[in-house]
Amino acid sequence: MKKLIIIIILFCISASVFAQRQHVKHLTTFDDKPLHFGFTIAVNTLDFRLEHYRPIGENPDFVYKEWGNFDGHEITKFDTVQADIAQQVPGLTVGIVTSLRLGEYFNLRFLPGLSFGERRLVYNVPVYDVNSTSAEPLEYFSIKTTYIDLPLLIKYKSSRLNNQRPYLVAGPALRVDISKTGVEDLVRVKRGGLYFEAGVGWDSYLPFFRLSTELKMSLGLGNMLNDGPDGETQRQYYTTALQKLTSNVFTLSFHFE
């Protein structure tokens, strides 16, 4: 994500320098239209913010059960089982842009789309998953996600400088996970969640369309942790160790309008 931020900063600096050299304005009446449409292609990374029970016995739902001995001991109520994100995995977002003009500097934007991503959880104990065909512990537990994104954002634009125009966006978004979640999944996440989104962007007015480059952060507003596995074969403590799980999404978007 740091690399993406550096790319955006360099892009904005170069675009600003380029804008000062331009003399021919493109799409001079584009922003006067009451309604216009476009499409979006974006790169995303999905993240979790995790809070744990320390030790796991602080969770009243924790029940000790013998799962077989590994690494010298069982997981008891005095142990701390901790999860973390192994690495950021790039994903893909595609969507539609609908923009309503509210005034010279403001637009209301609805950007429905689909996001495909993955989160990889690692634990401080070996990860055994009954869904895996291997008897060896997993390197990480993968949570693959397909979101329906429904953001409704206010866009505040600065004054136009030749063919360039920086802007800010903010507003709520609803995300619904339509990927299949099995009852025996190691960690189960709720399907729907509300987010607050905020970002910065740069409009570039080209001869035939406007290209907007945008970096946006989406912060989950609720606990996304679902109940643990329903089956009797899956180890429960990978979920009962977690007290709260909130979802965050970072997106680098390219809007074509």
Automatic annotation (TrEMBL):
Keywords: Signal. Residues 1-19 form the signal peptide. Pfam families: OMP_b-brl_2 (PF13568). It comes from the Bacteria. Residues 18-225 form the Outer membrane protein beta-barrel domain. This is Outer membrane protein beta-barrel domain-containing protein.
